[in-house]
């Protein structure tokens, strides 16, 4: 089921960076995210809820655009 908040995500294993592209067009990179956290978000029923509970406030981030 498509997310109403998260448009797309990409995980870079080499840098452990999770890039989240929001439906609004905003792009954020979350740093030092373990791959298992990315996999859990990928398979979660609500990507936006998972992001808010398990990633935001837990990992450093950078606004890309």
Automatic annotation (TrEMBL):
InterPro entries: KTSC_dom
A Pfam family of this chain: KTSC
Domain KTSC per the UniProt entry, residue ranges: 3-59
UniProt protein name: ATPase protein K06915
């Amino acid at each position: 089921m498509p997310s109403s908040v998260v448009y797309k995500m990409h995980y870079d294993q080499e840098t452990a960076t999770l890039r989240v592209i929001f439906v609004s067009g905003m792009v954020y990179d979350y740093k030092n995210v373990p791959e298992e956290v990315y996999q859990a978000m990928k398979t979660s029923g609500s990507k936006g809820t998972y992001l808010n509970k398990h990633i935001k406030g837990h990992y450093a981030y950078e606004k890309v655009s």
